[in-house]
Every structure is written in C-alpha cells, then in structure tokens.
Amino acid sequence: MLIRGVVAADVPALARVHVDAWHVGYAGLMPQGLLDTTTVERRTASWERTVRTQRDPREKILIAEVDGTPAGFAHTGPGRDPDAAGTGELWALNVAPSHWGSGLAPYLIEAAHEALRHAGFERATLWVLTGNSRARRFYERHGWGPDSVTREETIRGFSVAELRYTLDLRLD
C-alpha cells in the first residue's frame, strides 16, 4: 500500500473508486435518484477539472494505491464553512468497496490528518451523512467527534442531512 499525491493519470480510477464507494456505501442513505445520477462519466469530468485546476496550496488529494492501482482517496483543504476561519477540512474520503476492511482506510485517514497538519491547520472538520453509522464509527475511532452542527445539503437537486464532525489535530 502506498499513499501519494494525485496525478492526472489517476482520474479514471479515482472516478471509479468514488462512484463505487457511493453506490455501495450510500445505498439506502442517499436518495436513489442522486445515486443514479452519480456516474463514472460525471465523476471523471469533475475529477479532471479538479486535478487540472490550480488549487489552494493547502489542498491535497491523496491516493491510496494498492498493486499499482488507486483503491482510495482523501481530499483535504481549507474549511469551507462560514465559521471555519483557520480550520482545515476533510472534504472526502472514499475507498473502493473491494478494499473495505483491508486496513487501507485507517492508513489513508492518518495521511489526511498529516496533510492537514502540514498545511498548518490545528483543527479540522468533516461532514458525514447523519444516518451513516458505519462512517461515523470509523471517524470516531480516529479521534473525530460530532459538534452538533447539522445541515441539509443539496446535491444535484436532492437533499441530504449531514452532521459536522471536528478533530483537534494537535491531539491526534
């Protein structure tokens, strides 16, 4: 297992991991119509734009590579919430379902914590689906905790309920 920065050649595999993780992990948790519109083509176009675009130097896309193939990713950067001044954010962490339970996700989240620290953040946030108990348990095992801030996020016209988690990066 290798954790490294993203390169343009990763985009097709990155999109596949993203879509597969959403379709399996969010089944029954997100509106089916949203999952149906979450396609490899749509994710590929989105990741191509993201990887090509000049980003804030504190933003990192980390790839977890297994046997030469991307099997997961973490995307970190500055916090995007109105109250997030000086806070980092774990924007996304997804692992291919075929690698769930392999130990890849804990390795990847620790690398994300380190990327956030290296970017100068002492505190970080993430958003998780309120009903996603599997993800919530995972984050809690890695030091994150809910801060009781909730929101209804609209994604492509579909509403999903989310809960914010925080992490003190100085304690991790």
UniProtKB/TrEMBL annotation:
Keyword tags: Acyltransferase, Transferase
Entries under Pfam families matching the protein: Acetyltransf_1
InterPro entries per the UniProt record, alphabetical: Acyl_CoA_acyltransferase, Bact_Acetyltransf, GNAT_dom
Domain N-acetyltransferase: 1-170
Name of the protein in its database record: GNAT family N-acetyltransferase
Organism per entry: Kitasatospora cystarginea
